[in-house]
Here is the input.
Amino acid sequence: MKVKHVKLFLVSVSLFFGALFLASCTPSQAQASKPGALLWGENCVRCHNAPSPSAFSDSQWEVVGKHMRIRASLTADEVDKIVEFLKMAN
Ligand code: HEC
Here is the structure.
């Protein structure tokens, strides 16, 4: 291969992986469309047993949501869905 061709090859390879990297940063559709119950089951068991929806009242869940959003580093949207689910199921 000529030097010029090697350079061209390297540029296209880095563009390809650059694009892959960028694509991996945007939240996937699957994550965004997960229902609250699923997010609760996946996230709230990471550090302790997932508390039962009936363990707290609606207003208590609001507070727990704010607190655990920081602990679990969830997005506002994810926590909203989880709290929505817990308030619906308690
Ligand atoms: C990164 C770890 C972590 C994750 C993930 C996590 N928690 Fe917690 N949770 C804690 C810790 C640590 C405590 C106790 C200390 C405190 O209050 O910060 C706690 C305490 C609690 C309590 C209080 C328990 C009691 O009986 O007083 C509730 C309720 C709770 N978590 C709910 C949740 C919910 C709902 C989720 C999912 C959105 C969640 N947690 C995700 C770490 C976590």
In short: Residues 5 and 11 are 10 Å apart (CA to CA). The pocket of heme C is lined by residues 43-44, 46-48, 51, 64, 68, 71-72, 82 (CB under 6 Å).
